[in-house]
């Protein structure tokens, strides 16, 4: 995406000179000759950055005041100020007001280009850092090599660079937001912002101010003027989570933005232009919501240009061991604790459990186990240490055997262990009486003897002993 740079200078020659230099470098200059023109231009669309002359003749505000206003509206937007020769103090004051840097007149083209490039890079880095912090523990890759997950991965690679809108569907906690982040990171907008709006957790009366921003003085703007999520996402991706929870009036407004990419802030009249890719997600069946009259069909078609379904965890149980290992490593590091090994019977239980909360539920369980599973950190986590609803799904064989490793063995070895434990238990049950045991388990007495010998089970046959 071309980076647009607002050039604010009262001298037309300087404006044109700066614009020419930047245009040659592939930037998209926008020009303003007065403070008012500058503020109007920013109002209409947030530029990537601004270059601002401190001395603005013929304006009702000086450059420092304009700088202050710009910083109040878009604190993250870099501004480089131009100061006349001998005006270093003012330039330094501008830095205190939040300017990224200053250029002293006369300046040469190379210096201008270096400063502009550096300012944009710094803003991108700052945003990335902020996003990383905000994500706190979020993933940037999808774990799991099941066929279902590979299909999701392939779809992401195909769709991400296209700029199409995507509707991600899937049950709660299955990884829809993660998929949306990957769509952003693999798109040409990757160095733009990724902004999340959760329609489910937002009061309907606040939704519009949140999406479109609000002007000072409008009802609900107690904290002053605010930029909405659509504007924050300019040049990047807006992720609308649980889109089915959006009130119907808001749905109509979103539809308009999607059609012409402009909107008005709440309490404002100016049209704001944005360039935003919308990725939305739902865990509900939108077709059903449309039928019930709760979701607009025309909006559905606009959002659902490319549908992408994230499978539930129970549709890809073979991914569970890799997910467990991955979360175990991450959570152990985050908590400053040692990783625990998960014994095979516990893994088998995790792979057979139902997981209504999908990957999120599995992640939370692993985090809990690291802290709460009994035994020292070198003891493997066995199925009987899992919460009862999960351990109940451990295969009966591994619970009955009490041998946590049985699920790791070949059928031949597992059968041997099973037979030994089963027969030892039965003999114990019948007080060591081989005849009674043989009758119960359905074997000839002599065959049972041979079997016990082969398995290395020592018995004192009590059926031949006189009481
Ligand atoms: N394939 C995966 N690999 C690694 N981590 C995953 C994977 N899928 C989901 N997660 C993790 O599981 C948690 C839940 O995922 P996410 O928030 O993306 O789900 P969601 O479907 O958007 O949830 P909700 O429906 O509640 O909004 C997050 O911590 C996410 O990082």
From TrEMBL:
Modification type 4-aspartylphosphate: residues: 53
Record PROSITE patterns: RESPONSE_REGULATORY, SIGMA54_INTERACT_2, SIGMA54_INTERACT_3, SIGMA54_INTERACT_4
Domain Sigma-54 factor interaction: residue ranges: 142-371
Signal peptide positions on this chain: none
Pfam families linked to this entry: AAA_lid_14, HTH_8, Response_reg, Sigma54_activat
Entry keywords, A to Z: Activator, ATP-binding, DNA-binding, Nucleotide-binding, Phosphoprotein, Transcription, Transcription regulation, Two-component regulatory system
Name the UniProt record assigns to this protein: Sigma-54-dependent transcriptional regulator
């Amino acid at each position: 995406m071309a980076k647009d740079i607002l050039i604010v200078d009262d001298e037309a020659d300087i404006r044109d000179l700066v614009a020419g230099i930047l245009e040659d470098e592939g930037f998209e200059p926008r020009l303003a000759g007065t403070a008012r023109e500058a503020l109007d231009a920013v109002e209409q669309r947030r530029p990537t950055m601004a270059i601002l002359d401190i001395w603005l003749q013929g304006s009702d505000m000086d450059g420092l005041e304009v700088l202050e206003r710009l910083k109040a509206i878009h604190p993250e937007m870099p501004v480089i100020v131009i100061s006349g020769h001998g005006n270093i103090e003012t330039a330094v004051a501008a830095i205190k007001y939040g300017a990224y840097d200053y250029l002293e007149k006369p300046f040469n083209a190379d210096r201008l280009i270096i400063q502009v490039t550096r300012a944009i890079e710094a803003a991108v880095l700052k945003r990335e850092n902020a996003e990383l912090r905000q994500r706190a523990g979020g993933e940037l890759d999808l774990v799991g090599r099941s066929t279902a997950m590979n299909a999701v991965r392939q779809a992401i690679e195909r769709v991400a660079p296209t700029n199409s809108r995507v509707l991600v569907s899937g049950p709660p906690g299955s990884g829809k937001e993660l998929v949306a982040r990957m769509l952003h990171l693999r798109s040409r907008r990757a160095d733009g912002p990724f902004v999340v709006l959760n329609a489910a957790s937002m009061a309907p009366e606040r939704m519009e101010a949140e999406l479109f921003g609000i002007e000072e003085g409008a009802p609900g703007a107690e904290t002053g003027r605010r930029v909405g999520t659509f504007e924050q996402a300019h040049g990047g991706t807006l992720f609308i989570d649980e889109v089915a929870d959006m009130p119907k009036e808001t749905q109509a407004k979103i539809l308009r933005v999607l059609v012409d990419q402009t909107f008005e802030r709440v309490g404002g009249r100016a049209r704001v232009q944005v360039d935003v890719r919308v990725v939305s997600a739902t865990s509900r069946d939108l077709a059903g919501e449309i039928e019930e009259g709760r979701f607009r069909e025309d909006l559905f078609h606009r959002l659902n240009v490319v549908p992408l379904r994230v499978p539930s965890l129970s549709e890809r149980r073979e991914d569970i061991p890799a997910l467990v290992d991955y979360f175990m490593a991450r959570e152990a590091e985050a908590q400053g604790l040692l990783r625990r090994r998960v014994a095979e019977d516990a893994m088998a239980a995790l792979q057979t459990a139902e997981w209504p909360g999908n990957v999120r539920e599995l992640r939370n369980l692993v985090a809990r186990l690291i802290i709460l599973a009994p035994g020292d950190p070198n003891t493997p986590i066995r199925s009987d240490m899992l919460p009862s609803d999960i351990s109940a799904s451990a295969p009966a064989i591994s619970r009955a055997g009490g041998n946590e490793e049985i699920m790791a063995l070949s059928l031949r070895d597992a059968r041997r262990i099973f037979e030994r434990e089963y027969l030892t238990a039965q003999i114990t049950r019948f007080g060591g009486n081989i005849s009674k045991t043989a009758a119960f388990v359905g074997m000839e007495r002599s065959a049972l003897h041979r079997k016990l010998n082969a398995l290395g089970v020592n018995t004192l046959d009590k059926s031949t002993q006189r009481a």
